[in-house]
Amino acid sequence: xxxxxxxxxxxxxAVLADDASTPAPxxxxxxxxxxxxxxxxxxxxxDPELVxxxxxxxxxxxxxxxxxxxxxxxxxxxxxxxxxxxxxxxxIDKQWLYFDKDMEEKQPxxxxxxxxxxxxxxxxxxxxxxxxxxGATGRQMLERTERRWKLADADGDGALDKSEFKSFLHPEExxxxxxxxxxxxxxxxxxxxxxxxxxxxxxxxxxxVSGPEKDKDKDWSQAQQSHFSTYLDKDKDGALNADxxxxxxxxxxxxxxxxxxxxxxxxxxxxxxKLTREELAAAPxxxxxxxxxxxxQQQGYAGGVKHDEF
Length: 310
Fold this sequence. Notes:
By secondary structure, the chain is mainly α. Helix content is 54%, strand content 5%. It has one domain (30-298). It has a 3-stranded antiparallel beta sheet. Strands 4-5 form a two-stranded antiparallel sheet. Strand 1 (104-107) and strand 2 form a beta hairpin. Its main location: endoplasmic reticulum.
């Protein structure tokens, strides 16, 4: 039984784990990137034996840093922090490059992207002028995007340098603006505009973002309800208020440490709370998600592969 905790995609896919970190909703050209990611979900997986070989290489070169033949939670955590940072930096670099030709130089060697430029490229007028649900959704997204842009714009000049652009695309990484992630998540789920997310709204959203398991698993709904009432709805009033949404969307615990222990819990055959080279290779389908980006490029997946660990 898997309980859905992260449900609002940004640049990584939803997490099916005890880690409740929730990335922010997409803006503008991120939709195009998400379409590419969705297409990658149907890729032909690489040969398991090849994955095993590269997992063993990963263990030797990056996980077992003290060379004691084990990967501990601390070693996994350190690797995952670098791994996560690399994912974000790659995402920023690709999108910054996408807009490069339309940027202006604020000063020698420092380029900035103006809001008007980003808006015209990411939200064409013809899309915003559409009638019906598509047009309304586009206009709502534009409003949220502009709000997030202004928050990321630290000097208030209407343009973002690369550092500010990172805060715009990944506000969850910047303590100054990360609160907007909670606000956006609430707005997406709060269909009756009460300012809170009721259990019904919570379930409605999960049904939209979950896969076929919601129909195949007869206990799916009960598991989600149990998680909502046990862990999320702390005051037991049947809805998630601002504080409860923040605790869910931006949990205070260390996400990489939580993920490290999850990896161990799945692969630790002898239950000694650490992983061996053999244990890592014994579950290639599960652990291939932590293989570095270079592996997927070598296999011909130019855009990488979806990573479920974040």
